Amino acid sequence: AAAAAAAVPPPALARAVPPPLVLHKQHQQHQQSKKAVSKKKRVDSDEDDDEEEKEFHHGRKHVHSSHEDEQRSAAGKRGSNSSSGSNSAGAGDDVDVDSAGKKSHKQAERPKLKAKRKASADTPISSPTMSAISSLSLADTPEVGDEEDDGAAHDSRGGGVQWDTAHQTKKMKSRKPAAERLAGARFRMLNEKLYTTTGGEAYKLFSANPNLFSVYHDGFKSQVNGWPVNPIDNMIAYLKQRPTSLVVADFGCGEAAIARSVKNKVHSFDLVACNDLVTSCDMAHTPLPRQAVDVAIFCLSLMGSNFVDYLREAHRVLVLNGILKVAEVKSRIKDANAFVKLVCAVGFDFVSQDASNTFFVDMEFVKRTNKVGGVDAEQAGAVLHPCIYKRR
Question: What DSSP string runs through 225-284?
């Protein structure tokens, strides 16, 4: 038994563990030493920054002082030549301009300018007046691409600016000629005027200023060049598939493109008669008798704030079972079903709709009754929205 006991190895000695209080004190000492090292690093860094700032300001002061000396000497020479000799010191006093201070001032003013622009963008827009349209100048027409970001990319390594030449080249190509920009601005203001006034007011405006018609339609043609398709071409194609005996009323005909493209008898109405095919009038009161036409067309011409009166006039001049064709900008019709209900309330029945185009929608209605319905003007304005342009 003694031999067996001697063969068993002695148990391993347990490692001495310090009491909790000792551990806590050791932890505190370790944390304090880390804080001291970190604080020393910060102090050293601040001292280096102070030295750099002193050197920077010293250099600036040296540059300014040398510049002042040069100015004073030049002023002294000028004074001696002119026998004045008394203004040399004052000449140098006016030269001390801190360009860095100017730059920092501009940077400080930049947020205020942005806030002012945002506030002006949120301001409700009223209909432009005739004087505003006629007095519009190039100063009111910013060039395309004139934003705050001019393609500059800041170089974080050197603190300078690297210009994106590709962006600048594209921007220069996108800028339009001055005359074209001015014409586009006048068209937008005039277009907004037509959307936000009644047909009677627009007729008086164009009758007093016939030159506005060419301003408007020149701008309209420029807009059409950027469209994927012109809705008036669809109207012409529709009529060419129908009998030539059908009589057509073109409300808001412009230059009477439909009348010049089809063999049908076409009554063309607009605010100004630009040629012999057009009759100038308020489209809510055309000179046609009752039930005189088989097809009534509104191709992007439901523009007045009283456009429901135009629909009533179309209902009046259409024969029973006559066709009403409407082409409009999709963005104006927020709810297509609500617009259909509004037209049906006037006295039409819905036939079909073509919304395959990205920008425009074509609708067809038929006159099923000779009774004209009433529609609330406020309700109509909520269904078909005017085109309002943002002020830049």
Answer: TTSSS-HHHHHHHHHHTS-TT-EEEEET-TTTTTTTT-SSEEEEEESS--STTEEES-TT
Task: Say how far apart CA 253 and CA 298 lie, in whole Å.
Answer: 8
Cα gap 310→301, rounded to integer Å: 9
Q: CA 303 to CA 197: how far, in whole Å?
A: 9
More confident residue, 73 or 289: 289
N residues, the chain: 392
Q: Is the dihedral of CA 169, 174, 179, 185 positive or negative?
A: negative
**Greatest CA span in the chain, whole angstroms?**
138
Average pLDDT value for the chain: 74
Could you report the per-residue pLDDT of 204-234, keeping only the tens digit for each? 999 999 888 888 888 888 888 888 889 999 9
Q: Please, what sign has the CA dihedral across residues 200, 203, 209, 211?
A: positive
- Alpha carbons within 13 angstroms on the beta-carbon side of residue 53 total 6
